[in-house]
Amino acid sequence: MSLSLKKQKMPEQDPKVRAKNFAEVALGYSAGDAALEAARCLQCKNPLCRQGCPVEVNIPEFIKHIKDGDMDAAIGSIKNFNSLPAVCGRVCPQEEQCEKHCILAKKGEPVGIGRLERYAADYARNKGETVKPVAYKADAQKVAIVGAGPAGLTAAGDLAKMGYQVTVFEALHLPGGVLMYGIPEFRLPKEIVQAEIDNLRKLGVEIAVNAVIGQTFTVDELMEEEGFNAVFIGTGAGLPHFMGLPGENLNGVYAANEFLTRCNLMKAYRFPECATPIKVGRKVAVVGGGNVAMDAARTALRLGAEKVYIVYRRSEEEMPARKEELHHAKEEGIEFRLLTNPVAVLGNDEGWVKGLRCVRMELGEADASGRRRPVEVPDSEFELDVDVVVIAIGQGPNPLVQSTTKGLETNRKGNIIADAETGATSKPGVFAGGDIVTGAATVILAMGAGKKAAVAIDRYLKDKKNR
Amino acid sequence: MYKILEKQELAPSVKLFVMEAPLIARKAKPGQFVILRIDENGERIPLTIADFNREKGTITLIFQEVGASTRQLGRLNAGESLLDLVGPLGKPTHIEKMGTVVCIGGGIGIAPVYPIARGMKEAGNKVISIIGARSQDILIYEDEMKAVSDELHITTDDGSKGHKGLVTHVLQQMIDAGTKIDLVMAIGPVIMMRSVAEVTRPYGIHTVVSLNPIMVDGTGMCGGCRVAVGDENKFACVDGPEFDAHLVDFNGLMARQRMYKPNEHDASQRCARHGGEGECQCHSH
Ligand SMILES: Cc1cc2nc3c(=O)[nH]c(=O)nc-3n(C[C@H](O)[C@H](O)[C@H](O)COP(=O)(O)OP(=O)(O)OC[C@H]3O[C@@H](n4cnc5c(N)ncnc54)[C@H](O)[C@@H]3O)c2cc1C
Ligand SMILES: Cc1cc2nc3c(=O)[nH]c(=O)nc-3n(C[C@H](O)[C@H](O)[C@H](O)COP(=O)(O)OP(=O)(O)OC[C@H]3O[C@@H](n4cnc5c(N)ncnc54)[C@H](O)[C@@H]3O)c2cc1C
Ligand code: SF4
Ligand code: SF4
Ligand code: FES
Ligand SMILES: [Mg+2]
């Protein structure tokens, strides 16, 4: 039997239908799809795919188990490396990681590693996973985790399994970090994130929501007064950047964080049954070209906008968003205004957005990052008729923890300085990882950092005890 | 769950809750606030910490019923609980001995000014307070303010109590009479705070106001609470809520506070459909 050069297709909701609902776009493989896709894997002796995965999931092994129909073994194998496979199978930029390196990608399409990972994780969840609580020893040491995003949750799970007494402190009323408040339901159903969090609780991890570290407690208080022997900081990149445009404070201008938080965390799409309001634009411009911009644009469409533009100053090639999501956005009817840069938000007499003034750009010389730098085309100003503008040009580190913790060093951008292998910071007993260290990155990198830090914290606490 | 230990009605549609909140009470300082959520479908509602008792582990919240969520809040009773309560948030008031401090509270703003006046008094300042309301029956915290002030002036719009007129009239008279003022601290409706800023500006009297833009997270994550202060945009939830009144763009703030007027109307209408004021069912199913 000759194997297909193409991946098994992912069943999806029809673009016209899904553009009006918040249900998941990609529906997941059937058992038949999964078997066919698993059969495409060559079971390489030296699997290049693994090198592309930041946590080195044993890809051929778990795929072989799927092929053999041994799903318990498949999920067991994945979970040895990755504690959130249902999430990563959905949101990892596979085309730049595992699948990019797959040997099949040289001739045709790579193995659908992410899709298979998702299939195994969903299978396990639907079957009902059994999580055994870890019995603490009476003298178990205590570890505090600050921030319940993928970095913090991964560190928490691993440390709990090692027998530590772990408490996660989360500022918001729900744990999950960007997985809960940022990435929309139609890409990552909240039920999946919730199931992972429930599993952590069953494992014995305590999650204290409504606890802002730097306010409710400081890191120093956690260590000196609350008896924590070590602290892991995974507070993410949650500080929205604005552009400093004239008119940026008009009504109808949102940072993507606010727009997405109102919709995902606060369920504003169910207003007024859910009490948080959101401005549903008639015509919406989203400024930016990353995953955050795509998510905001597709959310605006689902809220009921007639027209949604992505305004991006470079060309499609330079867009940092996942290709798959770019494709989805196009299918749904999002209009791309590339090589276009906003210069002012225009308002009406009552202080509401009535347009976005833009200039056209062209690509000039390559900059330090190797991408060609966009430069303004003279006299190319034009106006987009919009009533909502969402700024999605990136996020920086929130300073709350750094500014209230003695002896915690940060870099020029305000990120915590931590060892790439261990997460150790300048402050003894304090470790950090995820977006707060690297700047806005990916779920799997944040998880990888949480994992490494858990190992390092274990080593640190054992060394300290034996001294 | 966060328990309501005590409930009082201070004036029609102004209610006071004493909340069980030991962790917040332990850290709270004058000028800070909390964010609460009533139930699973609730929005995040910011309210100033009007008082706190570290020994008892309680904080006091005072709120005016102005829309769907605050009305729903007002229907809760002692013994019931809120789903979420987080804090203390924001920066505390800068309190030190400065000399003479004029504390101005307008309407519901008297509640948050109270712990500040008390703190200023304890720090050794002479505290002159001016509190104002539309009418005597909605004037709150008169006794509390009297207890922490060297002088207390009352104004009402309708003249039912104290001076007939606005708090700014009394402030202007004080300045005209040559009173030496080292700091004015004003909390109340934005229009009042803007007027206070205009009164003190020509004399260069340092004036601080506490801003209440629409907030979501209260941790600096969403950017919704941004306010232009001088040449900069500040996030009121983490950089404030207190700012130098002479630098604040009050008109911009007022415009942004109206962002959800059409939605708020819908929410209130929906409440009315569910049985009118006092019996809204929309969040309890
Ligand atoms: C809209 C959007 C879409 C994205 N799409 C993708 C994608 O498709 N694929 C992908 O791989 N990555 C994506 N990312 C990036 C990815 O989500 C992040 O890199 C990842 O979530 C970082 O994890 P983290 O644990 O470091 O931080 P976060 O997920 O940001 O979590 C940090 C947590 O810490 C909490 N916190 C912050 N300060 C405090 C404090 N002082 N006290 C207590 N708690 C605090 C926050 O409330 C939050 O819950 C996306 C990001 C966004 C915003
Ligand atoms: C730091 C801060 C401290 C505050 N302290 C107090 C206080 O001690 N007592 C008190 O009575 N009120 C206080 N407020 C205002 C209070 O939060 C609002 O009145 C309340 O959220 C209105 O909710 P609603 O649904 O009942 O009214 P709605 O009908 O939804 O809104 C009425 C008006 O309230 C304002 N508002 C609505 N939602 C919010 C929000 N999420 N954040 C801020 N303002 C909003 C808007 O300007 C709106 O026009 C404070 C606000 C802030 C930001
Ligand atoms: S975790 Fe992400 S990168 Fe690693 S194998 Fe799974 S999908 Fe690929
Ligand atoms: S490189 Fe591709 S074909 Fe080879 S083991 Fe990995 S997934 Fe299978
Ligand atoms: S309320 Fe979100 S940043 Fe201030
Ligand atoms: Mg409301």
UniProtKB/TrEMBL annotation, chain A:
Residues 18-128 form the Dihydroprymidine dehydrogenase domain. Residues 142-450 form the FAD/NAD(P)-binding domain. One of its GO terms (molecular function) is iron-sulfur cluster binding. It comes from the Bacteria. Pfam families: Fer4_20, Pyr_redox_2. InterPro entries: DPD_II (IPR028261), FAD/NAD-bd_sf (IPR036188), FAD/NAD-binding_dom (IPR023753), Helical_ferredxn (IPR009051), SudA-like (IPR006004). This is Pyridine nucleotide disulphide reductase class-i signature. It comes from Lucifera butyrica.
TrEMBL record, chain B:
Signal peptide: none annotated. Binds 1 FAD per subunit. Binds 1 [2Fe-2S] cluster per subunit. It holds the Pfam family DHODB_Fe-S_bind. One of its GO terms (molecular function) is flavin adenine dinucleotide binding. The keyword Metal-binding applies. Keywords: 2Fe-2S, FAD, Flavoprotein, Iron, Iron-sulfur, Metal-binding. PANTHER family: DIHYDROOROTATE DEHYDROGENASE B (NAD(+)), ELECTRON TRANSFER SUBUNIT, DIHYDROOROTATE DEHYDROGENASE B (NAD(+)), ELECTRON TRANSFER SUBUNIT-RELATED. This is FAD-binding FR-type domain-containing protein.
